[in-house]
Design goal:
- This protein is an alpha/beta fold and about 350 residues long.
- It has 2 domains: about 120 residues, Rossmann fold (3-Layer(aba) Sandwich), CATH 3.40.50; about 200 residues, 3-Layer(aba) Sandwich (Rossmann fold), CATH 3.40.50.
- Helix content is about 35%, strand content about 20%.
- The protein is built from 11 helices and 15 strands.
- Strands 8-10-7-11-14-15 form a 6-stranded parallel sheet, sandwiched between helices. It has a 5-stranded parallel sheet with strand order 3-2-4-5-6, with helices on both faces.
- Strand 5, helix 4 and strand 6 form a beta-alpha-beta unit.
- Helix 3 packs parallel to helix 4.
- The radius of gyration is 20 Å and the shape is globular.
- This is DUF1611 domain-containing protein.
- InterPro entries: DgcN-like, DgcN-like_C, DgcN-like_N, P-loop_NTPase.
- It comes from Noviluteimonas gilva.
C-alpha cells in the first residue's frame, strides 16, 4: 500500500465547480482533516464552497499553507485549461501542488516548467503501486467490512471512516483502508482503485487488505456502484478482491438519478443488497449485509429521524446516518460487529 508524506497545511482548490458532488475531495478534507485546511480558493464560475475562508494563494502562504490541493473529483478526473492560471499562481506564491485527478500535474508542460523554475513540487497521489499481482481469490485471515453504494458521491467514504472510528472507540482493532484520492489524503496511504489496470484491480484490493489477526477489522472505503453505467467495474473488483465479511449499503434519500448520468435511475436498496451479496459470495461465501447508511444531510433532524426509522422497518436492518450518530448508529455498529 502506498504511504505518502505530504506538505501541510493545505489550501483547498475548488476550480470552477458547480456540482457539490464533484467537490467531495475538498469536503472530505474539511470534515475529516480540518486541522490541515487553512482555506479555499476557486476561479470565476465556481458556485460550490466548503465554508472555509476564501484566500488567495499568497494569503494562504502567509497564513502558513504549504500546498494547494485540488479538491475536485470530477467525472473523468480532468484538469481543464481554465484552472492552469490558478495552479501557476499557487506555485508562484510558494505552494506545492497536490493532485488526485486522473490527469497528472506533471503531464502539463506549463505546470512542469513552472515547478522546475520555482523549485516547487508536483505531487500526484492517484498513482497505484507498481507490480500489483493478479487476484488469487484465496481467503485471508482477519475480518473485513466494505461500504457499497447505490451511486457515487453519497457517503461511502464518510461511512467507512465513521465505522472505523466507532470500532476503535469500542476497543476494536480496526484500520480504515482508503481506495480513492480523498481517502488517501485523509489516511496518508491507500490504493487509488480507479487508477489500477482492470486486470489487476481485484489484486489491488487483496494487496490493500492483507492477512491480519483474527480480531482485526479492515474497514474499506467503497467506490462507485455495482449498478453504475460507467464505474461498476471498479466496484466489482473491490468487492471480489476485498472479500468482505460484512457490507454496509450507502444511499442518499431523494436522489433518484445517477450522478452525471440522468438517464439512469438510482437502484433501490433491496436491489443493491441482493446484487452485492450474490456477487460478493463468489469470493466471500459468508458475506452479509449489516445495515444501511443514509446520507440525510439535505433533511432536517425530524425528517431524517422519520426516514431512518421507516427504512429500518421496511428493510428489516439497522439504518443510520453516521454523521448524525445516536442510538441508530450504535445499532448499526453493533450489527457490523455481531
Amino acid at each position: 500500500m502506498n504511504t505518502i508524506a505530504l506538505p501541510q497545511p493545505y489550501l483547498l482548490f475548488l476550480g470552477d465547480t458547480t456540482e457539490p458532488g464533484y467537490a467531495k475531495t475538498a469536503f472530505g478534507l474539511r470534515d475529516w482533516a480540518p486541522e490541515r485546511c487553512i482555506g479555499e480558493f476557486s476561479v470565476p464560475g465556481a458556485t460550490v464552497t466548503t465554508g472555509l475562508p476564501f484566500l488567495t494563494p499568497a494569503q494562504a502562504a502567509s497564513a502558513g499553507a504549504k500546498a494547494m490541493v485540488i479538491g475536485v473529483a470530477n467525472a473523468g478526473g480532468f484538469i481543464p485549461p481554465a484552472w492552469l492560471d490558478a495552479l501557476v499562481e499557487a506555485m508562484e506564491a510558494g505552494l506545492d501542488l497536490i493532485g488526485g485527478m486522473h490527469a497528472r500535474l506533471r503531464d502539463f508542460p506549463r505546470l512542469r516548467e513552472t515547478a522546475e523554475r520555482l523549485g516547487r513540487r508536483l505531487i500526484d497521489i492517484r498513482i497505484p503501486p507498481e507490480r500489483i499481482p493478479v487476484a488469487t481469490g484465496k481467503a485471508r485471515t482477519g475480518r473485513r467490512l466494505l461500504t457499497i453504494g447505490t451511486d457515487c458521491a453519497l457517503g461511502k467514504k464518510y461511512t467507512a471512516l465513521s465505522l472505523a472510528r466507532a470500532f476503535q472507540s469500542r476497543g476494536v482493532d480496526a484500520t480504515f483502508r482508503a481506495t480513492g484520492q480523498t481517502g488517501i489524503l485523509i489516511a496518508g496511504g491507500g490504493i487509488p482503485m480507479d487508477a489500477v489496470v482492470a486486470d489487476f484491480a481485484a489484486g489491488a484490493a487483496e494487496l490493500l487488505t492483507p492477512d491480519a489477526a483474527p480480531s482485526h477489522w479492515d474497514v474499506i472505503e467503497g467506490q462507485g456502484s455495482l449498478h453504475h453505467p460507467a464505474y461498476a467495474g471498479v466496484s466489482l473488483a473491490l468487492l471480489h478482491g476485498s472479500q468482505p465479511d460484512v457490507i454496509v449499503v450507502c444511499h442518499e434519500p431523494g436522489r433518484d438519478r445517477v450522478l452525471g448520468h440522468p438517464d439512469y435511475p438510482v437502484p433501490g436498496l433491496r436491489e443493491t443488497i441482493e446484487l452485492a451479496l450474490r456477487l460478493g459470495a463468489r469470493t466471500s461465501p459468508r458475506i452479509r449485509c449489516a445495515g444501511i447508511s443514509l446520507n440525510t444531510g439535505k433533511l432536517d433532524a425530524d425528517e431524517a429521524a422519520r426516514v431512518i426509522a421507516a427504512e429500518s422497518e421496511r428493510i428489516g436492518l439497522p439504518v443510520a446516518d453516521p454523521i448524525r450518530g445516536g442510538d441508530a448508529f450504535d445499532r448499526l455498529v453493533a450489527s457490523c460487529l455481531a
